[in-house]
Amino acid sequence: MSKLLTVDKDKSIFTVIFTALSAWLGILAIPMLLLVLVNIIDYGTGLGAAKYRGNKISSSVGLRGIAKKVCMWLLVGVGAIVDNLITYAMQTANIDLHVSFVVASLVAVWLICNEIISILENISDIGVALPPFLLKIVQNLKSQVEKKTDLPDTTATTDEKKIE
């Protein structure tokens, strides 16, 4: 009977944590969950593929990989900060904006696509044949995100703008 209570307690704790995160992140909850999931899968398949690539697995390489994954989460956070700045600016200008986490969601989708591409490369290096369309679909999705968010380059100096 105590085993059943432990399982119910664990389920309850998981449900409370997931519900709180979902309420806090809103529309960003699913992309973040997917990003964490593909981060874990990429890390695991990367470890598995290292043997087939002739790479040596070490704690420093592993820590660098984990740091990269954490930085991906931070990039989504930067996107959320940009979203909040845009929302604040719009509210200040009395423009009612009914969207949230647009930039953060786009960053998350782009990162998820990168991770899926990496997972597919890892699986291919292990020796598993990939369906030919799968990589193309993911690359196309990544490309669509890049095209839809492509903005003109505003970093050119005044002299460079005159030349154009």
Describe the fold and architecture:
There is one protein chain. This protein has 164 residues and is an all-alpha fold. It has one domain (27-150). Helix content is 80%, strand content 0%. It is built from 6 helices and no strands. α2 packs parallel to α4 and α4 (102-126) packs antiparallel against α5 (132-148). The longest helix is centred in the middle third of the chain and has 34 residues, at 59-92. The model has no long low-confidence stretch (mean pLDDT 87).
Distance between the termini: 77 Å
Percentage of residues in strands: under 5%
Task: Give the % helix.
Answer: over 70%
DSSP, total strands:
0
Average pLDDT score: 87
The overall number of domains is 1
Gross morphology is: globular
What pattern of helices and strands is seen along the backbone?
A: HHHHHH
Q: Residue ranges: pLDDT <50 for 5 or more in a row?
A: none
What structural class results from the helix and strand content? mainly alpha
Individual helix count: 6
The description of the largest β-sheet is: none
- Kindly provide the radius of gyration, computed on alpha-carbon positions and rounded to a whole number of angstroms: 21 Å
